[in-house]
Design goal:
- By secondary structure, this protein is of the alpha/beta class.
- It has a single domain, classed as NAD(P)-binding Rossmann-like Domain (Rossmann fold).
- Helices cover about 50% and strands about 15% of the residues.
- The longest helix has 29 residues.
- The chain is globular, with a radius of gyration of 17 Å.
- It binds NADP nicotinamide-adenine-dinucleotide phosphate.
Length: about 240
């Protein structure tokens, strides 16, 4: 189960999980055409990919979606909370709506889906939960107070969940991407692309598949001894060296 699978990083994760043999359900909000095309394109040769419309900020939608997936496939092994938005603006200008929209979509959504998935995973004594954070969780970017708070919240939430669920063989980890080529970063890349690439030691933006690769690693059976961690996938952006 992947939230925000219609575009960008989530789409890369859906493609990688399907290629690895998983049955994949993913949530989208408004990109109906792209979501249904992705599901149809990937659902070949016995692979099952299912696009589900919903708003991740809604607890009722999360409960319905997780229940539908379990009804259809009888269990839920992997949950990737990926859906997210930005509403960047300096705090002095930030509206209450911009604050709430980001916190609800990015952080409350993680509560919504994790809570709905917890009982089935605990009963099955198996689960892999991967929550999408960001290097912004501990970077001090002006204009991102709402976004940074949501991502730092995800990391704290994930550590508590990891401890609560460890005995049941359910792991909870975060992936924290740096700059990845998606719709989310298109505007900032147009405005300051060269400067951003110069700040990244590997001198390129990440691709959705770079993040999908890390998610697959944490989703694997073999990762059962890794829990409560944040895996940065940022080309060295946060190392702080002189490059
Ligand atoms: P994106 O290209 O803008 O895609 C966002 C996805 O989330 C879309 O599938 C969108 O669905 C879905 N979504 C947004 N709000 C939703 C809602 N309320 N309910 C259901 N689905 C919703 O973003 P991205 O760059 O791939 O980012 C994915 C995640 O990685 C986010 O959590 C983001 O914070 C994180 N991240 C990204 C970067 C980066 O450089 N791109 C860096 C660090 C962290 P629709 O298509 O239907 O709108």
């Amino acid at each position: 189960m992947v939230t925000g699978g219609s575009r960008g990083i989530g789409r890369g994760i859906v493609e990688s999980l399907a290629a690895a043999g998983a049955k994949v359900a993913f949530v989208y909000q408004s990109s109906k055409e792209a979501a249904e095309k992705l599901a149809a394109d990937l659902s070949v040769n016995g692979v099952e990919v299912w696009a589900i419309q919903g708003n991740v900020a809604s607890k009722a939608d999360a409960d319905r979606i997780i229940q539908d997936v379990i009804t259809k496939w009888s269990k839920l092994d992997i949950l990737v909370n990926n859906a997210g938005i930005v509403r960047d603006t300096l705090l002095a200008r930030m509206t209450e709506e911009q604050w709430k929209e980001v916190i609800d979509t990015n952080l409350t959504s993680v509560f919504n889906f994790c809570q709905a998935a917890t009982m089935p995973m605990m009963s099955a004594r198996y689960g892999r939960i991967i929550n999408m954070s960001s290097v912004s969780a501990d970077f001090s970017n002006p204009g991102q107070a709402n976004y940074a708070a949501s991502k730092a919240g995800i990391e704290g939430f994930s550590r508590c969940m990891a401890v609560e669920l460890a005995k049941r063989n359910v792991t909870v980890n975060c992936v924290a991407p740096g700059f990845i080529e998606t719709d989310m970063t298109a505007a900032v890349m147009n405005a300051a692309g060269d400067k951003i690439k110069q700040a990244i030691p590997v001198r390129r933006l990440g691709k959705p598949e770079d993040i999908a690769h890390a998610v697959l690693f944490l989703a694997a059976d073999e990762s059962s001894y890794i829990t409560g961690q944040v895996l940065k996938v940022d080309g060295g952006l946060t190392l702080g060296g002189m490059t």
